[in-house]
Amino acid sequence: MSVVSRLESLRKAMISKSIAAYIIPSSDPHLSEYISNHYKTREWLSGFTGSAGTLVVTQNEAALWTDSRYFIQAETELKGTGISLCKMGLPETPTIETWLSLILQKKALVAFNGRLMPYSLAKATIQKLKDAKLKVDSNIDLIPDIWKNRPVLPSGKAFTHELRFAGATVEEKIEAIRIELLKNHANGCVITTLDDVAWTFNIRGNDVDYNPVVMAYGYVSMDDAVLFIDSNKISNTIVESLQNEGVAVLPYSKAAKFFGKLGKKETIALDGNRTNFTIYNSICKRNVVHECISIPTQLKAKKNSVELENIRGAMVSDGVALVKFFTWFEQSLGNEKIDEVSLGKKLFEFRSKQPNFVSESFSIIVGYADHGAIVHYSATPETAYEIKPKGFLLIDSGGQYHSGTTDITRTLHLSSPTKEEATDYTLVLKGMIQLSLAKFPTGTRGVQLDVLARNAMWREGVNYGHGTGHGVGAFLNVHEGPQSIRQNENPVTLELGMVQSNEPAIYRAGKYGIRIENLIACVPAYDNEFGKFYQFETLTLCPIDTNPIRVEMLTTDEIDWINSYHKMVYEKLSGKLTKKERDWLKAKTKEI
User: Fold this and answer.
1) Closest Cα to residue 133, out of 156, 103, 159, 101?
2) pTM for the whole structure
3) DSSP symbols for 184-249
4) What CATH number corresponds to the domain at position 449?
5) Containing domain of residue 20, as a range?
6) Which residues lie closer than 8 Å to 575 by C-beta, 6 or more apart?
7) In the predicted model, what is the mean pLDDT of residues 104-132?
């Protein structure tokens, strides 16, 4: 069934309910970034496979909004579908509401499924549509009637995230949540996102690709703690363990009704950005809502000492796998056929042999030559380039280990770089190093540090469209909040224990992409008469390609940083390698 046919089926369903426009976000009821196949409705309808995007369909037109990471990919995948691409962030791109107001008649009905949209976004969308004199229904799900042979809901089993990795018991986490409830003058909090649920109850699962989570909801009040999960997904042993820590376990299907019947006039802490519109509305009808960043989100962002030590261990395992992989790659390039797909599979093979490895942490990005300029490129057998010993190769990958989550990007030059290539590479490296060297007072936000990663390239009139850093979980989601390092304002300050990425980049469409990424942890720096200062500890352990560097562009501090980093990489990894791999690593970490 083609995209055109699927859209026609949707339009017929829209006619039956007098719907003029239907909005399809890229989400599930838990507002997950990565979603199970059952909820990949936007992908099924549009053919666009990127993780972020919103499809809007009217009787005569269809358009998809996505951000700069996916512009090139979306243009390719939407060809021939009749769906227009709307590039978010560009001044000429209309908002969804503006676009609809221009093409629909007044009082036309716009609909969406409120279970798949955050409350804050849905509320703003509804108001803007009403301001445009359009009607809105947020309680319509047209998909079950048109998606035949739809994938079933995931049925993976939950498993315990052991205390030796978690560093805190369920009981201790619930107590920490209750302390925050008191600070917020709230009686309880609803836990809706899968990573928050997993963290709170020390469980993990495999219901979503790359993220070790299980479909579940949670609730914690001053007196109760409840986990909502299907009985076939959790063993009696785990249930008994949770009950011993004060947690009641109820069926997943009971969650919505439970939330809708919370005691009248209770004060419930809710995050409008992380709670779907339907659930939020069911709660606020009977209770007072205290809007705040999800309490488990705030707590889990600050890794405890046990988690940090485990993450450091995961970085060693990941670094060993990467060194083995790059050693093999350098020897094999030019001697056997390697393409983007086979290279990704080979890296997975090396990672899978490491202790505590569970899965990749996201779909690997192997972008050779101009494919590297596609920010979230995903190679297929049909699109994969054969890799030749020339030009840039970008590899963005990560692993899920019981001990931690990794995310690393390395860009290699496979021959002699041109002056433009070497200049761009060095600008990216300078940005990554400058952020790595940052020291900053408490209360600093990521937006205040973002310029450090961009300053060198801004002076040359160059920029990149995505953020510089995202939070990373502890054997959880590779992208987590609430902190970020990006140009967009985010009021969340960087706190001790927070782990985030550091990934400046330059993309030249039709030529190449360059991104260098390490994970960094916020740790103490100074405590003096001027207050407390923090700095970043670089966690990732893997050599950075020095071949494309224009050393004359680096400052003394930057040269010292890369030499010190490479010394650390060699010291921490060399003892776990064969002589051949150790010799390779010694050469790659030689001082510049």
Assistant:
1) 101
2) 0.93
3) TT-SEEEE-SHHHHHHHTTEE--SBTTB---S-EEEEESS-EEEE--GGGS-HHHHHHHHHTT-EE
4) 3.90.230.10
5) 3-146
6) none
7) 96
